[in-house]
Amino acid sequence: xxxxxxxxxxxxxxxxxxxPVGGYYRQVIFPATRRGYFKDTFAFFVRVILxxxxxxxFLFFAFTILVxxxxxxxxxxxxxxxPTDRIDMMNTDRAFSKMSEEKGxxxxxxxxxxxxxxxxKPDRMPIVGADAIDFLIQQNDSSYILxxxxxxxxxxxSGELGYTYGIYALKPAxxxxxxxxxxxxxxxxxxDGKWKYVxxxxxxxxxxRHEEQ
Length: 213
Hints:
The chain has 6 helices and 8 strands. The protein is α+β, with helices and mostly antiparallel strands. Strands 4-3-8-7-6-5 form a 6-stranded mixed sheet, covered by helices on one side. The chain has a two-stranded antiparallel sheet with strand order 1-2. Strand 6 and strand 7 form a beta hairpin. Helix 4 packs antiparallel against helix 5. The radius of gyration is 36 Å and the shape is globular.
């Protein structure tokens, strides 16, 4: 037994215990009996825990933040394009055109623009956000009727953005003619599921080939 106890005897490595300014090291020697070994080992770890209470508080705080962050991360559902998103967006563009035809271009563009929407107009810088809304408010649309028909559209895999493009028809009130052009609109799905355009641009003319919409 004495030989066995002698084999259990060892000297622990130097451990740092919350050193004051200047620091000091304490050497820990465990007794050679199994009973004393477990007793002093338990006491050793208690002293380490108590001596490092500040570190434990920090680790507990960090662990708590990590847990709540993980819960928040998993609670957020990834948005994925649904089977009807493209149809809904295309129908929104058609409703947009119908409102323009019935209530005027200005009312329609103000109704469907996103708060950060952008208008691209010839010979001027992009008109963004509140400036775009102010620009639309100042428009006089009483002298013409504007309508269009989307030819194609697509929605991103996320289901949050999409685009449509097609041909527009502008009919001046005092002229027996129709002016055609092309357009493209980029759409963003809102929090309520509705679509608003975040960018709109048009080009006059379609060449010799066109169909009235």
